[in-house]
Amino acid sequence: MKLLLLSDRESPYLWDHYQPGRLKEYDLIISCGDLKSSYLSFLVTMARAPLLYVHGNHDVRYAQQPPEGCECIEDKIYTYRGLRILGLGGCPSYNGGRYQYTERQMKKRIRKLAFQLWRSKGVDIIVTHAPPAGYGDGSDYAHRGWECLLPLLDKYKPRYLIHGHVHPNYGEGHPPVLHYDDTTIINAYERYILDIEP
Predict the structure, then answer these.
(1) For residues 167 and 143, is the Cβ–Cβ distance under 8 A?
(2) For the domain that residue 79 is a member of, what is the CATH number?
(3) What is the dihedral of CA 66, 113, 26, 17, to 10 degrees?
(4) Bridge partners of 85?
(5) Taking the complete model, does pTM exceed 0.85, yes or no?
(6) Contacts of 132 (CB under 8 A, 6+ apart)
(7) Tens-place pLDDT, residues 41-99
(8) Secondary structure of the chain: what % helix, strand, coil (to 5)?
(9) Which domain holds residue 135?
């Protein structure tokens, strides 16, 4: 199964310079946030695959104009061809914006997922906007990661955690792929292609 992962920057290859057929190889598209809703609507229209998304900290316009034809997976587990995919968007609070949460608020969101996680017998992919603390996050206050994601990874051991929020041009020097025990952590900035066994 081939997944197209997206975050933070609209890819000129897939939008400005799009050519028919460029999306035909993908089975699933996942957005980790901070992308224009018109971009996501365009991609799901041109692709033959569903598009799942979580909110980034700059996605306040989604309230008035959500991405058409796309599925928001915030605070729920979405199963696709046997893959259990959990969505937890937003970032650590830095100025009180709509999709910003304190560490305490994020812990509460995770606790509320306990029954879903039990019922689905775990999760294969976690989709976030901000990364876990210490694994691809930024050194500045606005781009720090979530501490509370680490116990979630420890307990459920998902195969992947996919995030955005931290741009490569911020100069942090993080590679796009990191590892935390059994979990591969991927920064989906602009676009990343993931081949995965269902």
Answers:
(1) no
(2) 3.60.21.10
(3) 40
(4) 78, 125
(5) yes
(6) 145, 146, 147, 149, 150, 153, 161, 180, 185
(7) 999 999 989 999 999 999 999 989 999 999 999 999 999 999 999 999 999 999 988 99
(8) 20, 25, 50
(9) 2-195
Residues 90 and 53 sit within 8 Å (Cβ to Cβ): no
CB atoms within 10 A of CB 18: 15
| Distant-in-sequence, close-in-space partners of 189: CB < 8 Å, separation ≥ 6 | 7, 8, 9, 164, 166, 167, 168, 176
Torsion angle in degrees (nearest 10) through CA of 150, 185, 6, 74: -20
More confident residue, 18 or 107: 107
- CA–CA gap between residue 144 and residue 191 (Å, rounded): 21
Q: Determine whether 163 is exposed, middle or buried from the number of CB atoms within 10 Å of its CB (0-12, 13-18, 19+).
A: buried
- φ, ψ of residue 42 in degrees (nearest 5): -65, -45
In this structure, are residues 126 and 188 in contact, taking their beta carbons and an 8 Å threshold? no
Of all residues in the chain, the percent with pLDDT exceeding 90 is: 86
Q: How many domains does the chain have?
A: 1
Q: DSSP 3-state assignment of 35? A: coil
How buried is residue 116: exposed, middle or buried, by Cβ count under 10 Å (0-12/13-18/19+)? middle
